[in-house]
Amino acid sequence: MFQRIIQFAVANRLLLVLALFSISIASFFIIPKLNLDAFPDVTNVQVTVNTEAPGLAATEVEQLITYPIESVMYALPDVKEVRSISKTGLSGITVVFDESVDIYFARQLVFERLQAAKELIPEGVGTPEMGPNSSGLGQVYQYLLLAEPGSGVSSMELRSLNDYVVKLLLMPVEGITEVLSFGGEVKQYQVNLNPAKLLSYDLTQQDVMGAVNKNNGNVGGWYMPRGQEQLVIRGTGWLESGKKGLQQIQQIPLKTVDGVSVTLGQVADVEIGS
């Protein structure tokens, strides 16, 4: 058989050269369009559900969050496996489907069940959310933000720069699903209540939270005609950032005692923390 092939090639050299030339030309146009990866993606069809629960221990996360979500995910069709991990302040659940299931259909099924799972989780404990549609090979690049020595730029400022500037510049790039932030300190405006002062003014933590929510927002009005124009009337009440924002938080009124307003700064220390 092999000898016949050699004899045919020798007898039809011109035909063989033309065939080789044709294959080379076709390969030049076809190979760049082939859907091939340097590292084949062997990740199965899976959907992740993550829940942040600050302040809860791993056992509490397992009982209050992980178990209720797992119990409703097992009933989904074509589910092969449901695995989870419960850490301090974090619950991670992975729902694995059969290979024949479309990933977007699987995410739709999980999303529908997730609404039922939320009713089983105590209010205020945590809100489960689906993770991005990415595979095990989805993490393609890591970068690091560094400050010049002696510049005085803190890790909190670097984290804010990444979350509100760098991240927003990278997200529109084609092919990027999500930009994750690790490290640094997340900037917070903290209100540290003084229990003794709250009792002296007959206030509760709920009173303070309600006052802060009511005093941080804009109010829409109506239109006021002025000649051929119409002026939009609205009240602006968003709290500003930085030190000015701290002062505004301290001045939020909580109640009135004998005609004098009791402000938040009188019952709590307001500061920027992480």
UniProtKB/TrEMBL annotation:
The lineage of its organism: Bacteria, Pseudomonadati, Pseudomonadota, Gammaproteobacteria, Alteromonadales. InterPro entries: AcrB_DN_DC_subdom, Acrflvin-R. GO terms for cellular component: plasma membrane. The chain crosses the membrane at residues 12-31. Keywords: Membrane, Transmembrane, Transmembrane helix. This is Cobalt-zinc-cadmium resistance protein CzcA. It holds the Pfam family ACR_tran. It comes from Pseudidiomarina piscicola. One of its GO terms (molecular function) is xenobiotic transmembrane transporter activity.
